[in-house]
């Protein structure tokens, strides 16, 4: 046990207590952030005349050496240290001696950990954003290629009106775009630097300078809030939960579309798994796992909200619990987005099945009624007439466009040969031209806007 404290203690820490208290097994993920923060801190201390330039250079060199050795596998981060902060500082002192003991001037581990967590979360927001952008690019490609791919639009999981695959996928484009906006907002709001001890310090620190060195917009404005604020973790996990909810909904659709009953899509072999007993099976495990892992990210959000709810100001050790769940959620979300992107971009769409399904579901029934209305039949009567036609088709096991004109005429003489044109999937979709509709012209406009957005962001 290599501890940074002990002066006022007369006994060794109990072994079980040590293990229970230690965070090195997980906060070692912070080694880069911790070193980066320390380098900025000593640069500021030297600028303020609190350390000499020589001490600063010695410490900086020592910290760079630790970083290099850890990265090259020459220096192992072991459980001999309580946390990553102790590991770095103890190693520094071993390397450079007395100058190393000055590193911790004017800061506490509490603002150090707050800083490390912010730096880590900031980097991971950028990483997640990149994954989301790749997903949007994959969706954009599907949209571009499927402006004329007809499929049923559903409400209540009942076929409603015909849409296109571009339109359906476009809905998810909107969701993941909002997810990126949310991450952007969080990053902006959290971008203040907490370094500077618990209730202020008597050293003449230049906190604005440290903030600038570390790429923050400003220093935090209240030291007690600085060390006890985990709002950004909560916001991150909330945004992550929303991303997972979106991925999960899309996964659910893909699982349905991939089923024997729908056959709208065929998931690529590389993204499917087999059954140990039933040779015919090709299972959508990846989509199912993404859907399943949503629960674990929601769990992280609930967990941190509960951990934070009773904590008096300022720092309390409860807050150490923020890390494992955040790390796990980050790995889960980034991993799920990447796998999902691979799965959707290799998936085959069975366009003929999609179109046939739209027809068999009478998604053009409203258009048939509109045809009658356009020929002077009151809507309520038209509704009744088409209802009877649907019943007739159901009885025969055919779709509206397969019903002979003579049978149309038996129910209403208003029908003429042009009814088939009026209820074709093409007409039904192309007539829907308002912004946000599946009509190809307006869809092309949306796709062009998406393209511009993706080029700029
Ligand atoms: N491991 C701690 C955490 O993750 C670091 C801060 C420790 N501070 C303290 N006063 N014991 O929150």
Summarize the structure.
With 457 residues, this protein is mostly helical.
Write structural notes for this entry:
By secondary structure, the protein is mainly alpha-helical. Helices cover 62% and strands 5% of the residues. The chain has 19 helices and 6 strands. It has helices at 15-21, 24-27, 31-47, 53-71, 84-96, 109-145, 165-190, 207-213, 223-228, 231-257, 285-308, 322-346, 351-360, 365-374, 379-396, 405-411, 419-422, 425-430, 440-456; strands at 150-155, 158-164, 192-193, 218-219, 265-266, 348-349. The strands form 3 sheets. The chain has a two-stranded antiparallel sheet. Helix 3 crosses helix 6. The chain is elongated and about 100 Å long. The two termini are 48 Å apart. Bound molecules: arginine (ARG). Arginine is lined by residues 23, 27, 83, 109-110, 113, 317, 319-320. Arginine binds next to helix 6.
Write the layout of secondary structure elements.
Elements: H1 15-21, H2 24-27, H3 31-47, H4 53-71, H5 84-96, H6 109-145, E1 150-155, E2 158-164, H7 165-190, E3 192-193, H8 207-213, E4 218-219, H9 223-228, H10 231-257, E5 265-266, H11 285-308, H12 322-346, E6 348-349, H13 351-360, H14 365-374, H15 379-396, H16 405-411, H17 419-422, H18 425-430, H19 440-456
Parallel strand pairs: 3-4
Antiparallel strand pairs: 1-2, 5-6
Helix pairs in contact: 3-4, 3-6, 3-8, 4-5, 6-7, 6-12, 6-19, 7-10, 10-11, 10-12, 11-12, 14-15
Bound molecules: arginine.
């Amino acid at each position: 046990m290599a501890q940074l404290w002990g002066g006022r203690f007369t006994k060794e820490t109990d072994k079980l207590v040590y293990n229970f208290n230690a965070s090195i097994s997980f906060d070692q993920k912070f080694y880069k952030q911790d070193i980066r923060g320390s380098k900025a801190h000593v640069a500021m201390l030297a600028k303020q005349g609190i350390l000499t330039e020589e001490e600063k250079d010695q410490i900086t060199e020592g910290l760079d050496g630790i970083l290099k050795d850890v990265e090259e596998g020459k220096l192992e981060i072991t459980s001999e240290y309580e946390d990553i902060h102790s590991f770095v500082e103890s190693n520094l002192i071993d390397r450079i001696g007395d100058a190393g003991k000055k590193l911790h001037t004017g800061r506490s581990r509490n603002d150090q950990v707050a800083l490390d967590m912010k730096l880590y979360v900031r980097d991971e927001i950028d990483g997640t954003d990149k994954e989301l952008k790749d997903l949007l690019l994959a969706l954009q490609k599907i949209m571009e290629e499927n402006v004329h791919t007809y499929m049923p639009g559903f409400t209540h999981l009942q076929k409603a009106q015909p849409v296109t695959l571009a339109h359906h996928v476009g809905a998810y484009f909107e969701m993941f775009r909002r997810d990126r906006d949310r991450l952007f907002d969080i990053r902006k709001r959290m971008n203040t630097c907490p370094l500077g001890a618990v209730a202020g310090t008597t050293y003449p620190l230049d906190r604005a300078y440290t903030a600038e060195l570390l790429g923050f917009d400003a220093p935090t404005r209240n030291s007690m809030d600085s060390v006890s604020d985990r709002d950004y973790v909560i916001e991150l996990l909330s945004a992550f939960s929303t991303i997972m909810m979106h991925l999960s909904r899309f996964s659910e659709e893909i699982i349905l579309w991939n089923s024997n009953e729908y056959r709208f899509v065929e998931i690529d072999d590389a993204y499917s798994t087999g059954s140990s007993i039933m040779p015919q099976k090709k299972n959508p495990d990846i989509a199912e796992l993404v859907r399943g892992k949503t629960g674990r990210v929601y769990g992280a959000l609930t967990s941190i909200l509960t951990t934070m709810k009773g904590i008096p100001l300022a720092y309390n050790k409860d807050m150490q619990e923020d890390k494992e769940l955040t790390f796990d959620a980050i790995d889960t979300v980034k991993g799920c987005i990447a796998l999902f992107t691979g799965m959707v971009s290799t998936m085959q769409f069975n366009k003929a099945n999609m179109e046939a399904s739209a027809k068999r579901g009478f998604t053009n029934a409203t258009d048939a009624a509109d045809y009658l209305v356009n020929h002077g039949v009151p809507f309520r009567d038209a509704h009744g007439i088409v209802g009877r036609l649907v019943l007739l088709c159901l009885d025969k096991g055919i779709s509206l466009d397969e019903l002979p004109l003579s049978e149309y005429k038996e129910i209403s003489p208003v029908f003429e040969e042009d009814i088939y044109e009026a209820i074709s999937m093409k007409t039904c979709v192309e007539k829907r031209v308002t912004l946000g509709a599946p009509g190809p012209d307006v869809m092309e406009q949306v796709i062009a806007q998406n393209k511009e957005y993706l080029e700029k962001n």
